[in-house]
Amino acid sequence: MFAQPDQNHWLFRPSMHQAWLNTLALVIGTAFSLSLLPLPFAIMLGIVFGPALLLWRHRIHKQTKRLVHAVGYDADGWWLAFDCRRQQAGGPWQAMHKQSVEWRLGTIRGDEWVVLKWGWLPWQSIDVRPDGLPKRQDFQDLKRALHQAAE
Asked: Which of 2, 42, 73, 106 is the most exposed place for a label (fewest CB within 10 A)?
């Protein structure tokens, strides 16, 4: 059969490249939407809601990047490790939850981008870029493992 990668799990870290692309898409989409409105109304909406929208997007980005910490596979198949944060007895605590997943339609394995889609809802996916893993070789190993799993 095929040679397995040296590891069977990959730890994620925030990808600055993906963060910039998400922000750029948000700014361009907002500018286009505002261009369809009368100029004074568009300026007012941009001034009032622009900073709030960027802050909201930044907060959502931080929350989703904290949510899925790792992906891997074992004898039972592929899994994701989630960070489940709860408030208990006046202080936060952290627990890792490992969930078995099956990659769905929409999972993409590109040269510089992997989209792992495990559910039907838009937030049930994660974008992985080479700078989202500790080493570039980890990204290549992840792509190789996904390719072998698809066969």
From this structure: 2
Torsion sign across C-alpha atoms 95, 101, 107, 110: positive
Q: Give the H/E segment covering residue 10.
A: strand 9-11
Q: What digits encode the pLDDT tens for the residues 13-63?
A: 777 887 788 788 878 887 887 778 788 887 887 788 778 777 776 666 555
> In the chain, what are the domain boundaries?
10-150
What's the Cα-to-Cα distance from 85 to each of 26, 61, 66, 114, rounded to whole Å?
Answer: 28, 16, 10, 26
Residues 125 and 114 sit within 8 Å (Cβ to Cβ): no
DSSP structural state of residue 73: E
